[in-house]
Amino acid sequence: MTTMPVPKGFVVTSGFGPRWGRTHWGTDFGLAGGSGGQPIYAVRDGLITRAGSASGFGQWITLDVDAQHGGGLYVYGHIIPEVTVGQRVIEGQRIGHINPDSSTNGGVAPHLHFEHHRYVWSQPGPDRLDPMQNVLAGAKWVGDSTKEEPMTTIFGVDVSEHQDGMSLAAAKAQGMDFAILRLCDGTYRDRTFRSHLADAESAGLLVSTYWYLRAPSEGSTIAQQVDVIDQQMGGRRDLGVWIDVESVSGSRKLLTGADVWAAKRELEKRGYHVPGIYSGAWYWEQMPGGEPSMDGLGYLWVSSYGRNRTGVPRDLYQGDGGDGHAGWSYPLGNRKPDLLQYGSNAHVAGRIVDINAFRGTREQIAAIFNGDTQPQEELTVSEADRIIKHITDYISGFVGPIGSDTKDVRQQLTGGRDAGDYRGWPQLGKDSQGRNLTVVDAIAALRVELAEFRAEFDKHVEEN
Asked: Are 27 and 114 in contact (CB under 8 A)?
């Protein structure tokens, strides 16, 4: 579904297309009697990528819509933001209000200027689309009482050797659409992976896999664990590998955000697709070093059991609220679940098994499993910022006084305390005093260049 970006009663005051001898690259919405201070809304679920000052707009917001909700980037101009960069929003959520100050838009009466960009922020041209034709046709107004079509929800199981002998063909016959199969627990190979895989594929289930990631402090490196995945896969690279993040010792959480990123990098280096992360609030929010961001880690598969009763999958789901299940609205690391494991006591094919729901179609979850949900896009400023954050988060994992090898790495990266012979890297260039830059120095310089690029970028925003 799609929600109009303004309240009911607003009209188009200036459409997309030719205007005053030029092209108007968006649609303006206004309200008889004045629209200053009126709220604006998220048209679909997505991520706020810009919020603040922008040349020609006074202030703006850009909303990067999730692929499963249609994709694209939406621009809200001449407004005052009520959200921040990096914040996830849902369709119909209030995200700001129209700026009542006419001086911010050339003296024209306060209004919302709304743009639809095909993929990412684009210069004026073919990748800027008419919002009224491409997204807002048939959109509902906030507060409309018209009945919506029920959301499609499909179900699936995740299994390991604890379900040895379970018929996944029977699970398919009982309404399951997908199966996620355990590859290994650390370096322990799941002995039923191959048989479960053959059974699931012959039954026509959508298939993905998961790896129960063990912290390196438990005795095996991430590379050694992925060696086992290689053995289990036998050369296949068409099956996605979810990273299961819940390794504990007693009540102590062992994995860090740096471990999770290292696992993702190792899988991708070897050619595997990583759909995303599996975890629960009990773990993700209490990870050493604080709750990590989900930015860049893919989709989120969350365990949230509610009453965790025993019974038939659909009955259990409806009994805990169905598509209104509380787990869907609870975010981990700034992302709400894309896949919900809502119980561990479902009766499927004569066995007790973990049960999962996906609010979408079989084709949509197949795209998540297979890695073809995101179009190839150019690197935007916000994406570059996220990449830098991931690098700096990784570096920060080495900064504490936790052993001589770590200190050695820290010194090479930063040229810091007791640097000794580590005087930076010639490959990264030199500072103003002719000294080689360290990795941290180079990242800092890159951030400055990105900030300058952002400022120049904002200068060239089309005045509307």
From this structure: yes
CB 387 within 8 A of CB 380: no
Residue 66 contacts residue 151 (beta carbons within 8 Å): no
Given the structure tokens 């603040």, which residue do they identify? 52
Closest C-alpha to 160, from 194, 203, 202, 190:
190
Q: Count, in order, helices (H) and strands (E) of the chain.
A: 11, 26
Tokens of 151: 């959301």
29: its two tokens: 């919405």
Query: What is the Cα–Cα distance from 186 to 249, expressed in whole angstroms?
Result: 14
pLDDT tens digits along 69-87:
888 999 999 999 999 999 9
Burial 5-33 (b: 16+ CB within 10 A, else e): bbbeebeebbebeeeeeeebbbbbbbbee
Structure tokens at 205: 């289930």
pLDDT, average across residues 148-159? 81
Contact call for residues 268 and 304 (beta carbons, < 8 A): no
pTM of the model: 0.53
User: What whole-number distance in Å separates Cα of residue 194 and Cα of residue 164?
Assistant: 11
Return the pLDDT at 25. 87
